[in-house]
Amino acid sequence: MTAQYFQLSTRSGPNPGKVFPLEQAEILFGRDLANDIAIGDPEVSRRHARFFRQEEDFFIEDLGSTNGTFLNGERISSPKQLRAGDVITFGENIVMVFEKSSYDPDATIAAEQSLQAYELPQEAPPVEYEQTVEPKYEEELPEPRVEKVRKPKAKREGFPTWLIILIIAVVVLACVIAVTLYFMPASWWCAITFDMLDGCPVP
Asked: Domain for residue 187, yes or no?
């Protein structure tokens, strides 16, 4: 068995996007809060229009409103049958769309029962893992550094002072003798060598 579902979807007005289900046989529309659908807009009369159902169809009727009721852009003066997608305008600001859909209530009930019968598997309890505490090792102290003590080098003992003076004196004396001999006359050399050198006079 197929059932019909009717609703009004607000396109513009105080609450754009709001949906009003048409579930009763008669629904009053207007600014007064006593209406089934109350819209607080100055373009809407206190009792502006009414929706009523006849068998499987919905109709709309203007209740003598000041600013009028329009169906797909045309102002209505008598009840008009509504079809899915019809645009209804109340005054100048309120625009709604009539929507109609079909559904199978038996299939819906069966689906709900199957969902209730289906039991979700119980979640397994969480597994607790033992935390392994790693042993803390004491920090190894650095080995003490052994500084090598350098032994002072033994001072070499120099020559005695007297020996140095003696050597200098000998060197100076040798230089004096060499210079003296160098400047001696040739006759002197011939005399001490007994005229054996070349150039000495022969007796």
From this structure: yes
